[in-house]
Amino acid sequence: SVDCSFSRGVCDWKQDADDDFDWNPADRDRGDGYYMAVPAFVGHKKDMGRLKLLLTDLRPKSSYCLIFSYRLAGERVGKLRVFLANKKTAPVWEQNKEKDERWRTGKIEIFQGAETTNSVTFESERGKGKTGEIGVDNVILISGLCPED
């Protein structure tokens, strides 16, 4: 497994230069490192911020599971989407705010075939709200299919 978390991960993360705003580091509550977040007040409604994970060293023709923590906190905070590079048009994962604002776990299977997925993009879309944030943390890539809970 590959640790792509932000505090001590070994992965190559890039801010998208063509989006509307950047993701920024935010301190964890427990004080052990940080996660990446977009505060709700950044930008205008429907603005996008994209954070890209470059997957340059993946062996082709095997599958991976991308596991990550995420949180959407705040009234009308917006959406979090995940795109794979070889499927640019539609997100492979999308989430709006849940009833509570706790951290949850997302899982995405990445199948390497004829087309290699060379990046994963976390996209935050600004909502109408002015408080809260969209956060991503603990990004891990493991070989094989995603485990059941």
From TrEMBL:
PROSITE patterns: MAM_2. It comes from the Eukaryota. Residues 2-148 form the MAM domain. Gene3D superfamilies: 2.60.120.200. GO terms for cellular component: membrane. InterPro entries: ConA-like_dom_sf (IPR013320), MAM_dom (IPR000998), MAM_domain-containing (IPR051560). This is EGFL6 protein. The lineage of its organism: Eukaryota, Metazoa, Chordata, Craniata, Vertebrata. The gene is Egfl6_1.
